[in-house]
Model the fold of this input.
Amino acid sequence: MGTKGASNRQRIIEAADRLFHTRGYNQTSFSDISEVTGIPRGNFYYYFRTKDDILNAVVEDRLGSYRRMLSACERATDDPRQRLLSFVDILDSNAEGIIQSGCPIGSLTSELAKDDPELQLKSREVFDLLRDWLAKQLDMLGLENSTQRALDILARMQGVSIIACAYKDRAYLQRNMDELKGWINGFTMN
Amino acid sequence: MGTKGASNRQRIIEAADRLFHTRGYNQTSFSDISEVTGIPRGNFYYYFRTKDDILNAVVEDRLGSYRRMLSACERATDDPRQRLLSFVDILDSNAEGIIQSGCPIGSLTSELAKDDPELQLKSREVFDLLRDWLAKQLDMLGLENSTQRALDILARMQGVSIIACAYKDRAYLQRNMDELKGWINGFTMN
DNA sequence: GTCTATAAATAGATAGAC
DNA sequence: GTCTATCTATTTATAGAC
Done:
């Protein structure tokens, strides 16, 4: 695989990633990706056989990004409570994108739930990654039902994202992220 | 407007309502609605000028349905706490649909956030209706920041719906609906 | 009011020149 | 590896017969 080929492939993935977030999977056409990247439509099929393949590559790319962010978070501190608070900050740093287009993970998984069960399963892998990482930190805090609590954290962030996006209310998002941090701080007292 | 015409129009709205939930707005074509209702595609334009008009009619129809449910809930009891608990039960009765396709309100509003700001504003009206009704009950309980708390209830239900749908986990939905009721019961002690 | 036929645009996907 | 041209199917929407 040549350097330029890998570059083109990566450019397609990154453009598709952004478009899947801002316009949705089904509303993103090959023409859209072509316009953004400058790569002709027909060339896409050299790198991906189908549109579904692009989605799979985008999810794999997201998994890699989140794994790197979580690893960096683990290297920064050994305190699981601090790690959980950093986790909230990571997603908080994407606040503007959430207000405009919703959570990239949640909105993609929700969209694909209506479409193709296989694609939804693929997009859910990002949830799996975050859930397992959160559960690991909760385990270190000595909490029980760590997986369920991890899902509760994700559910809370998803719900806040939905409302904040629906009302384009950045203050609502900020306030609830802070309350979520307080909730997480309360975990240590159990 | 004749009887049969109104009937056809209503049949289109109800079929579109279900399809917008199970497949999404953008993934629902006139052909899909035609297949379900048996009404030819071309006939749709006698009742609606555009697909957007169908969405508007669907949202208006949903608003009417929810208004009737909330009114019935108000007639059933004067206790605002009981009304809030009944509210959770109403959405809980649609559990199977939430598992399969997500919350009809949340998923539609999220989808349209990526598409057309005007359509999102229209679909958000259902959130507005529920928010205001919840806030009214919270006011009766003597709570402050009733609108913010109402949004918190909606956010919590949305988040739980996203996770329950992603993992097709009916038990998770049920457990969190019960916890939400406990949370609401806690409101009276403030 | 109801339906058929069809327009005009766009989708995902393919073939093949270079 | 890269790009143009094109195929086939489907989309929203229109025209017009009945």
Remarks:
- Residues 2, 4-5, 8, 39-43, 46 of chain A lie near DNA strand D (CB under 10 Å from a C1').
- The first helix of chain A runs from residue 3 to 22.
- The CA atoms of residues 137 and 149 of chain A lie 11 Å apart.
